[in-house]
Amino acid sequence: MRREAEKSAKELEEATKALEKRRAEIAASERTLKTKLASLQQLEQRVAAMRQPVSQMAELLYQQPLMGGILPFLTGGADEKTLRALSDANQMVAVRQQAVEQTSTLYKEAERLAGEAQELRAGNLLAEAQLAAEVDTLRQRSDKIVKSLTAALVKLGIKIDKVGRAALGCNPLRAATADHYPNGLIPPSMLCPLQQKGQSLRADATIAFVSLNEAYRRRFGKAMCVTDAYRSLAEQQSVYYRRPGFAAVPGRSNHGLGLAVDLCGGVERSGSAEFVWMEKNSKRYGWFHPSWAYSSPFEPWHWEYDPKIDSLA
């Protein structure tokens, strides 16, 4: 159960990262699209601006026709007005030709930008549709994992309410989300109950502890004894003042992160069979006895969870 949950959680975490990357790519593509559309609009404005002088010169020629002045020019009798009109006509033709060439270039550039913008639009729509489908698939897979875990945990003796609300925190995908809350202020909905009544931990720690508990039960014929697991900030303050020197400063304890337990039933005695068994086997399930707890202060009952040391992949 635990291995399957951890494998699924890892796959979903990687898929979630891929979705986030896809979202970033779509956002970048949208920014590129906006830039191309802005460039296209600027090109259209330039084309309109280039058409204006040609139109003005054509209107001037219409107002001052040259047909009457061509014959005198050809016979050598052209006056200054006629020469100026011919010069203006030549200039108009040259400017018009230049404008036609530049406008043609701008039109080609505009067509290219329009085509690229259209491709970006189509690509973004397709990417968004694929993203929505992948998110839906992930959600369905997550729901399936949680239901399977909840059923397995119930069989192992974890008490939940009639609608399974207390087990919703057992979703391994939400384990990392618990890190977003301050020490000792993790909402109950983010915690998963243990088999030991009244105790709870972060989802991944709970799943690992249940597996450890079952191995312990097979060895000693009884469930592990737990005196403390997750502590709220208020509970940590109470323990700190009641047992000075034997509790971390409120807001700094791993109990407040839902990643530590205090054990009894023999484990609290260093050198006992239960303690020695824990030293030899706990790391297989991601649990360990921290080095400081061997001496300063000496707390053989205190054990912590670290998914990085879990050897059961």
From TrEMBL:
Keyword list, A-Z: Coiled coil
Family matches, as InterPro entries: DD-CPase-like, VanY-like_core_dom, Zn_M74/Hedgehog-like
Ranges where the D-alanyl-D-alanine carboxypeptidase-like core domain occurs: 200-307
Lineage: superkingdom: Bacteria
Coiled coil is among the record's keywords: yes
Sections of the chain in a coiled coil: 2-46
Entries under PANTHER family matching the protein: D-ALANYL-D-ALANINE CARBOXYPEPTIDASE, PEPTIDOGLYCAN L-ALANYL-D-GLUTAMATE ENDOPEPTIDASE CWLK
Protein name: D-alanyl-D-alanine carboxypeptidase-like core domain-containing protein
Species in which this protein is naturally found: Nonomuraea maheshkhaliensis
Lineage: Bacteria, Bacillati, Actinomycetota, Actinomycetes, Streptosporangiales
